[in-house]
Specification:
There is one protein chain. The protein has four domains: 2-214, no CATH class; 233-371 and 497-559, 3-Layer(bba) Sandwich (FAD/NAD(P)-binding domain); 379-491, 3-Layer(bba) Sandwich (FAD/NAD(P)-binding domain); 580-691, FAD/NAD-linked reductase, C-terminal dimerisation domain (Enolase-like, domain 1, 2-Layer Sandwich). Helix content is 48%, strand content 17%. The protein has 29 helices and 22 strands. Strands 1, 2, 3, 4, 5, 6 and 17 form a seven-stranded mixed β-sheet that branches. A five-stranded parallel β-sheet has the order 8-15-9-10-11, covered by helices on one side. Strands 18-19-22-21-20 form a five-stranded antiparallel β-sheet, sandwiched between helices. Strand 12 (460-467) and strand 13 form a beta hairpin. Helix 3 (41-57) packs antiparallel against helix 4 (63-74), helix 4 (63-74) packs antiparallel against helix 5 and helix 8 runs parallel beside helix 10 (154-164). The protein is globular, with a radius of gyration of 32 Å.
């Protein structure tokens, strides 16, 4: 098979070399074909047909030019007949070549398209290919090559392409035919009604095709549902967390009527059980930690006693302070109709809450997520909390088991440990923070152990047990059974999307294996007027990610008939607020390796930064990934004091295409932590100094000294 591939590729290469080597391209001119046509129309059609097939089969990027050429040469009717069949035959041959000869090359060149196309073919079959042909979401050539790596049958590929490309081919052939009728290339010769109309048609065809496809898909999707003739509201938003609040805010800001439905508390998880309470707890724990470090700063005889109940009450008071930002009063004042109650989607345009049914032109599902509780045997017998329920704890336990080594588990494990609780943190991975690089996790684990946290990594939870007042976890580690005793357990094993009781199953709205709602690049579900954003949609479960998605969901819902926007995740940052903090944007090393992306690493130790030394926080590092030989930033990870603030400079740089040279050339105040970013850029610059130029400069300076 390998020898066959090599032979066929050699034949193709030899044919191309012979074609150009013999100067045969000189015959591919309009004058030559026009003269040939006058002498032998059938021969001309056959030659053009053959050339078009070969050009398309070889994926040469001149198909559009040849279509216009063919229209000018043969006119609309004959040109459409010739080009329609030639393009489809050539495309099918290109698909078969990709399937048999170029699999590895196509995989490496167009890998980014393959998953999307495979998923589309798997889900919608020939209809997906038809939609690609009618409105090319990817280039014509790429569709041919990428389809070769799918399971679609060649016969199906042919007839769907033949039908799907017909309308677009007709538009281009018509434009060519109109150009062929131009007698002279003057203003009066070009500005004919037919030619103007043909080019206007070229411009608006994608929009027309998109509208046609939208109508076809809508008819298919909404079959069996009756659309109301008028609506109570423009948007019904389900969930008043970050995603829901931002969606409602945007809709109200542009004077749309919006209903916001929340069955629990305004502000969602972030305000009531997530970001706000956890950061308030971390602040108290950090103050206590600094008190215990007072000797380092020359302050003697400092003592403190943790009033655990008061700490937890302070957490609630902070929630109360922030609460007005997300209150019913504020959003009602903005013009949002805030409704307290459970929401159920009963049709693509109807949401039932209590005894009321609201008709909405668009629906945004922003119902958030909830902590995942694993089905570990015996879990119902023990005293356990989740990140939602831990805030009700008032009596300080002596021993706490934290199950989970992700950001939530790590933040809470360190915070409770620094408040005087003996914490054992357990995770089945060989390190905590498994999404980050190994060197990042090592710095964090070193600090955790220094703090006194009993880290148990590589432990797989098997069962919980309880006898009287005694509770323990049975876990496997290196094939041995271990027991870990505790007073209370905190489960921090990720979150699960809140989709139960929404009614989406009855409507056939799909969910991913992890429970999130399936959405497209515009955050639309199966129904184009129903959107989802935030934790319920994924792929990121951050408050700022939910707010980011909410803008796209709201704008697409309100104005999508004119212009839709694909959600952009290209520069998605996050931070874990432990000590030292971990913040990242873009790629990590392990992600770059997994994706086969080439990179260079520049690293600067924060222990060498003046301000970090002065503050007694000289630990951690900054690591920047760049394109080899260039200063373009692929990703940045910062481990250290206030990393969540420092990362912003790199977020801005990546968002606006600024490289390390720009950061190096920016004045940073001394002494500040932000100098970390400049020094990292300086390390990159030193590693890329042109050696030959430096040797020349050394000789120049020596000459200048008279040596």
């Amino acid at each position: 098979m390998r020898n066959t591939k090599i032979l066929l590729l050699a034949i193709v290469a030899a044919a191309l070399a012979a074609f150009f080597g013999l100067g045969l391209e000189q015959y591919l001119t309009f004058d030559f074909f026009n003269q040939l046509k006058s002498e032998s129309p059938l021969l001309t059609a056959a030659v053009f047909f053959s050339i078009y097939v070969v050009v398309t089969a070889l994926s040469l990027p001149i198909a559009t030019v040849m279509t216009l050429f063919g229209g000018a040469l043969f006119g609309l009717a004959q040109g459409l007949l010739i080009i329609s069949f030639a393009s489809t035959i050539g495309a099918t041959l290109a698909m078969l070549v990709s399937r048999t000869l170029l699999r590895d090359w196509v995989q490496s060149k167009f890998g980014s398209y393959l998953k999307t196309i495979n998923d589309g073919v798997e889900k919608d079959g020939p209809f997906y290919l038809f939609s690609l042909r009618l409105i090319p979401a990817v280039p014509f050539m790429v569709i041919n090559l990428a389809m070769g790596l799918t399971k679609i049958r060649a016969v199906t590929f042919y007839w769907v392409s033949q039908i799907g490309m017909l309308a677009g081919t007709a538009v281009y052939v018509n434009a060519g035919a109109q150009l062929g009728q131009v007698d002279e290339f003057s203003v009066s010769g070009i500005l004919t009604p037919g030619l103007i109309f043909s080019f206007v048609l070229l411009a608006v065809f994608p929009w027309i095709a998109r509208s046609i496809m939208g109508a076809i898909q809508a008819k298919k999707v909404y079959e069996g549902h009756t659309k109301p003739t008028k609506f109570d509201t423009n948007i019904a938003v389900i969930g008043a967390g970050s995603g829901g609040l931002v969606s409602a805010y945007i809709a109200a800001a542009v004077k749309a009527k919006v209903s916001l439905i929340e069955k629990h508390q305004m502000g969602g998880d972030c305000l009531n059980t997530g970001c706000v309470p956890s950061k308030a707890l971390i602040r108290s724990s950090r103050i206590n930690h600094y008190i215990h470090r007072a000797d380092e700063f020359g302050i003697k005889n400092v003592q403190a006693e943790v009033d655990f109940k008061a700490v937890m009450e302070r957490v609630q008071s902070v929630i109360k302070q922030v609460e007005p930002h997300d209150s019913v009063e504020r959003y009602s004042g903005l013009g949002v109709d805030c409704i307290q109650g459970k929401a159920e989607i009963v049709s693509p345009w109807e949401v039932k809450t209590g005894n009321e049914t609201i008709t909405a032109r668009n629906i945004i599902i922003a119902s958030g997520g909830r902590p995942f509780v694993p089905p570990i045997p015996g879990i119902e017998d023990i005293t356990y909390y989740t990140s939602d329920t831990i805030w009700g704890l008032r009596d300080k336990p002596e021993r706490m088991l934290v199950l989970g080594g992700g950001p939530i588990g790590s933040e809470l494990a360190q915070a409770f440990n620094r408040l005087g609780i003996k914490v054992t943190q357990v995770d089945r991975s060989n390190r905590i923070l498994p999404r980050e690089d190994e060197d990042v996790a090592e710095v964090v684990m070193e600090q955790f152990r220094k703090d006194g946290i009993d880290l148990r990594v590589g432990y797989d939870a098997v069962a919980f047990h309880k006898e009287g007042d005694r509770q323990w976890l049975e876990a496997k580690h290196d094939g041995e059974t271990k027991t870990i005793e505790f007073d209370v357990a905190l489960l921090a094993l990720g979150r699960k999307a809140n989709t139960a009781s929404l009614g989406i199953e009855k409507l056939g709205i799909e969910t991913a294996p992890n429970g999130t709602i399936e959405v497209n690049d515009y955050l639309q579900t199966k129904y184009p007027n129903i959107y989802a954003c935030g934790d319920v949609a994924g792929p990121y479960q951050f408050t700022h990610a939910a707010a980011h998605q909410a803008w796209y969901a709201a704008v697409n819902a309100l104005f999508g008939r004119f212009k839709k926007f694909k959600v952009d995740y290209s520069v998605m940052p996050w931070a874990t607020f432990i000590d030292p903090e971990v913040a990242r944007v873009g790629l990590s090393e392990q992600e770059a390796k997994e994706q086969g992306i080439k990179y260079e690493v520049t690293k600067f130790g924060i222990d060498d930064l003046d301000r970090a030394m002065a503050d007694g926080e000289a630990k951690g590092f900054i690591k920047v990934l760049t394109v080899p030989g260039k200063d373009k930033i692929l990703g940045c990870t910062i481990v250290g004091y206030h990393a969540g603030e420092l990362i912003t400079e790199y977020i801005t740089a990546m968002k606006h295409g600024l490289g390390l040279n720009k950061i190096l050339g920016t004045i940073h105040i001394y002494p500040t932590l932000s100098e970390t970013n400049k020094y990292a850029a300086g390390e990159w610059k030193k590693a890329h100094v042109p050696e030959k130029a430096m040797k020349f400069l050394a000789r120049f300076h020596a000459w200048n000294r008279g040596e």
